[in-house]
Design brief:
The protein is of the alpha+beta class. It contains six helices and seven strands, in the order H-E-E-E-E-H-E-E-H-H-E-H-H. It has helices at 11-21, 60-63, 109-124, 140-148, 172-184, 188-198; strands at 23-30, 33-40, 42-43, 48-54, 67-79, 92-106, 150-165. Strands 2-1-5-6-7-4-3 form a seven-stranded antiparallel sheet. Strand 3 and strand 4 (48-54) form a beta hairpin. Helix 5 (172-184) runs antiparallel to helix 6. The chain is elongated, with a radius of gyration of 20 Å. The two termini are 15 Å apart.
């Protein structure tokens, strides 16, 4: 995380960001080695993030009881010095990222099924123009075979760390130039975050 406290995200903002993004690089280290897992996360309460992996995943044997960091990244992009109002500045990178650090625990079979249901429900709800998919649309035998091939886990989060580096340390004219430059480069998502970070209602 960036060391400048002006870019820091509080824990509640970190939780909301992870819920909104939903996908993480999960870095795990155990007695048998280290691995990175690419997985969607489902919040389960305030400081629990559930996920599942294929049993054939080489990381499977490392997970239960291991410590891990889930890294969740948001929009990011290069910022050209030409976009600033003032001279003598250097290139930089604006970005949003959150880390959730803690320990991993295995889920029971029932909890795994609940995790799969919660994962689909969370994201199907965002596809409002179509009927929601549920596992009732699957053949039960097919679903059972799928469940047997995966394993569920929960990351019990002990520490949240977040950075929203969005030109908050720049003056209003510089920020306006960054927003215009990002929009000109077609990066509307990052431009909106930079603009929002300077507004009274911005979260950073």
């Amino acid at each position: 995380m960036h060391p400048d406290p002006s870019f820091a995200l509080p824990p509640d903002a970190c939780r909301g960001f992870v819920r909104g993004r939903g996908f993480a690089h999960l870095f795990v280290h155990g007695p048998a080695g280290a691995a990175v897992i690419h997985t969607p996360l489902v919040p389960d309460g305030e400081d629990r993030l559930t996920f599942h992996v294929a049993r054939r995943n080489r990381a499977f044997a490392l997970l239960d009881g291991a410590r891990a960091i889930a890294s969740v990244a948001g929009p990011d992009g290069y910022v050209s010095p030409d976009w600033y109002a003032g001279a003598g500045q250097v290139p930089t990178w604006n970005y949003v990222a959150v880390e959730a650090e803690g320990r991993i625990e295995a889920l029971s079979r029932d909890a795994l099924v609940a995790q799969v249901d919660a994962l689909s429900a969370l994201h199907e709800a965002r596809l409002a123009t179509k009927p929601e998919w549920t596992r009732d649309k699957m053949e039960p035998a097919r679903f059972e075979a799928m469940v047997e091939s995966i394993a569920g886990f929960v990351l019990v989060v002990e520490q949240w760390r977040g950075t929203a580096k969005l030109s908050q340390n720049k003056g209003a004219a510089d920020v306006a130039g960054v927003v215009a430059g990002l929009r000109g480069a077609g990066d509307e998502a990052l431009a909106a975050l930079v603009a929002g970070a300077r507004s009274p209602s911005g979260s950073s």
